[in-house]
Amino acid sequence: MPENHRAGFVNIVGNPNVGKSTLMNELVGERMSIITSKAQTTRHRIMGIVNGDNYQIVFSDTPGVLKPKYKLQESMLEFSEGALVDADVILYVTDVIEDPTKNADFLAKVAKSGVPTLLVINKIDLLKGNDELSVIYDKWKSLLPDAEVFPASALHKFNVTNLMERIKELLPPSPPYFGKDALTDKPARFFVTEIVREKIFLTYDKEVPYSTEVLVEKFSETDDSIHIMAVIYVERDSQKGIIIGKNGVKLKHVGIDARKEIEKFFGKRVYLELFVKVEPDWRNRENKLRSFGYIE
User: Fold this and answer.
1) Cβ-count burial 222-242 (b if 16+ within 10 Å, e if not)
2) pTM score, two decimals?
3) Which value, to the nearest 10 degrees, does the dihedral of the CA atoms of residues 212, 193, 270, 60 take?
């Protein structure tokens, strides 16, 4: 290992829907975090690892910060707050639309953390000119005076390279935490559940996607194919009917889209079977949240 090797944990935090997952995917170069236009789609801390000859960056995408309404959201907030404690660098992501005073409590914790903080003002492609940006810049600088500010557009890859270079400079001297060929700390089946959940968010409206959870019950892999059986859990019978759709059309649509994405992710042929089961009020039941990996 080179003597000047650096390694560290770079944790991405911020409110829902500001583009944290898009930014993480851009920085990691792999499709690690589920991206949809709906808020609160990331529910876990998802790690993506970037390796260079003399550095290792362990990125961690966290759920958007919000006031919890049920037990699932309480555990999501714990993932986000935990990310402030074990970070070597904090990436606080906001955008040009967001009200900076939203979730002031969490922002105060970031300001007091003592961890080097890079404030990313995302989606600057939506602005009309520099005057608007300087007003937003000043407002955020007053809230996080010690942070370095990076105006960026993750979607259009603007300023992401500069951000990456600054992250490397801030890493502490350290040997790598994971093997140099590692891309993530999550098992293969975790990404299957994320991809199926993403397709659910893209296929159904309103509250139904937020009431669903996906569990992989079978994942058997050979050299050229993978056979997967996964269960989509919902909270009510009526939701089960919506997920399946008339003559099973909707569920089939989700299955086809998810299978294509999973094949792309693993680079081999995939056989995917999806089932739907009702698990009443699972978002408020600790035993269920534990089995879905939200509570340790």
Assistant:
1) eeeebebebbbbbbeeebbeb
2) 0.66
3) 150
